[in-house]
Amino acid sequence: MESGKRAEAGPSTAVSEEKQERQQREMTEKPIAVEVFDDHEEDDDGDDIKEDAAEALAGFVPGPLLSLKEQIEKDKDDESLRRWKEKLLGCVEGDLNGQMEPEVKFHSIGIISDDLGEVNYPLPIDRNGNGLLLFTLKEGSRYQLKLTFSVLHNIVSGLTYCNTVWKAGLQVDQNKGMLGTFAPQREPYVQILDEETTPSGVLARGIYSAKLKFEDDDRRCHMELKYSFEIKKSSLPSF
Predict the structure, then answer these.
(1) Which of 100, 102, 160, 181 could pair with 156 in a Cys bridge, judged by C-beta atoms 3.0 to 4.6 Å apart?
(2) How far is CA 216 from CA 20, 79, 149, 155, in A?
(3) Helix, strand, or coil here: 15?
(4) Residue of 126, 127, 116, 136 lying closest to 238 (CA atoms)
């Protein structure tokens, strides 16, 4: 009996093994499906997002310009906003006259350097007293310009400066920078521009002309100051 059972099991086992081999052979012969990610599709998605953002900006319409006085009165019932505005404006609320356009009034321009220390000139410049030559610096010395100004009537946003320098009619340098956003306040603001270094060498010595311009993010020009300075082998005050 046992030998009979083994005889019956023999063919079944062979068929099963043959079936397994056939399945394995089919799997190896069948190409494997590989999912390929197209980087260009991701780039296209990024381009679509950028286009959507550009369209949103193009369709953006800013609200009407309100005077600071109107803005304060508009939110006077909001306690948190009232406190924030009091902290921002201090005690100038009573001086607001309803004018919408902000005004930046510059009081003085100064020069800070190791050679001269700190020298300040009131604005507008007295051309009869100082002429256009504001200062004289030693070649290779570091210096910074200092501005004192007040903001009137409304908040000025995105106030920037551009200082362009020429020598013998050729532009030799230009520096730009962001000062920031300023609200009206009683005390003047004091801003010190980025440090610069005068050139060195025989060819660097001489008189330079410059133009310092201030604009806000609405492209309003608040001051355009033309001045000159001199670079010498040794620094001598120009006053």
Answers:
(1) 102
(2) 80, 30, 14, 10
(3) helix
(4) 136
76: number of Cβ within 10 Å: 11
Please give the C-alpha separations between residue 134 and each of 63, 213, 231, in angstroms, as whole numbers.
43, 16, 12
124-152 per-residue burial string, b: 16 or more CB within 10 A, e: under 16:
ebeeeeeeeebbbbbbebebebbbbbbbb
Round to the nearest angstrom and report the end-to-end CA distance of the chain: 129
Q: What pTM does this model have?
A: 0.62
Joined tokens for residue 79: 């306690």
* Cβ atoms < 10 Å from Cβ of 104: 22
Strand partners, 232: 138
Phi, psi of 75 (to 5 degrees): -110, 25
pLDDT tens per residue across span 28-48:
555 444 444 455 555 555 566
Q: How far apart are CA 185 and CA 104, in angstroms?
A: 11
The residue assigned the tokens 């962001």 is: 178
Region 50-67: mean pLDDT is: 57
Note whether 90 and 186 are within 8 A (CB).
Answer: yes
* Residue 116 · residue 157 · CB < 8 Å: no
User: Nearest to residue 81, comparing CAs of 91, 71, 90?
Assistant: 71
